[in-house]
Amino acid sequence: MQLAASATDVEAVSTLVSELCGVTLGASKGYLIEARLGELVDRFHCGSYQELANQARSLMNDALRREIVDKMTTNETLFFRDRSPFEALQHKIIPHLIDAKEKTAYPTRLRIWSAGCSTGQEPYSIAMTLSEMIPDIHDWDISIFATDVSDDAIKTASTGVYAAHHVERGLPSQFREKYFQPSTGGWQVTDAIRSLIRFQRANLLEPFTGFGRFDVIFCRNVAIYFTPERRVDLFKRFADSLSADGYLFVGSAEAPSDLTHRFFPEDHCRSTVYRPHGSTSLT
Ligand SMILES: C[S@@+](CC[C@H](N)C(=O)[O-])C[C@H]1O[C@@H](n2cnc3c(N)ncnc32)[C@H](O)[C@@H]1O
């Protein structure tokens, strides 16, 4: 039988999860903790969830901390989620970036970051969009950097294999024909598309050391789980990581409204994208 989580357990696990990855557990936290961490409590021979949290805090227990993060993060995602950001990318942003880049020292370089990429559907959707736009894409210096705090999510994303029901969610059938091949377990993204993406485990609470600057950052449906203070800190660091003419996509409930001194909004294709001050307006 599943061990019940007491109020003390809920407090201990919620504090740990917030410290590890910034995620604030929602109203159903007791139930979530029981459903997702019950097996770990058994495996680590703990008498309570609080004891599990204490074990995870021990210096030697990075593997347990990572497993807790894997289990407590919400990895819900789908190909071309919300559709309109990808339409804005295709019809407005990429054409603008291609024009703007022509006058620079690196006319064929594009750097895009999918921050909180979950199991990979977002960066693969970006890669397919770019591939549609740029026929000679492999002659370009394109890099899509895709990061997530969850080891499991990054592992799935890197293999690029999806069960049929995941591929059916959001992906136009002509894209499945063009960019996927049948594989054990479902469908695998082609090597040509996978080669455009570099996957890496990275925690958005930590400094973005060595990441460089990006033309476009997607960070959607991630900061919604953070406290307002952490969200502001994250968006400020995104502002510092964008090129002067860059673009930031966030989820529809995550507008950086308290950062009007760093970003201004622009509406394209029914989507709002945030630009650093000083960038050339597209409208
Ligand atoms: C709901 S998914 C969103 C996936 C995708 N961006 C989308 O919109 O479909 C949220 C992802 O954020 C990741 N995440 C949560 N906290 C994070 C952190 N501190 N650093 C990096 N990724 C984090 C989770 O592991 C999860 O995969």
Automatic annotation (TrEMBL):
Taxonomy, superkingdom: Bacteria
One biological process term in Gene Ontology: methylation
CheR-type methyltransferase domain sequence ranges: 1-264
Pfam families: CheR
Keywords on record: Methyltransferase, S-adenosyl-L-methionine, Transferase
Catalytic activity: L-glutamyl-[protein] + S-adenosyl-L-methionine = [protein]-L-glutamate 5-O-methyl ester + S-adenosyl-L-homocysteine
CDD domains: AdoMet_MTases
InterPro entries: Bact_Chemotaxis_MeTrfase, CheR_C, CheR_MeTrfase, CheR_N_sf, SAM-dependent_MTases_sf
EC number: 2.1.1.80
KW Nucleotide-binding (keyword) present: no
GO molecular function: protein-glutamate O-methyltransferase activity
PANTHER family: CHEMOTAXIS PROTEIN METHYLTRANSFERASE, CHEMOTAXIS PROTEIN METHYLTRANSFERASE 1
Protein name in UniProt: protein-glutamate O-methyltransferase
Organism: Rubripirellula tenax
Lineage: Bacteria, Pseudomonadati, Planctomycetota, Planctomycetia, Pirellulales
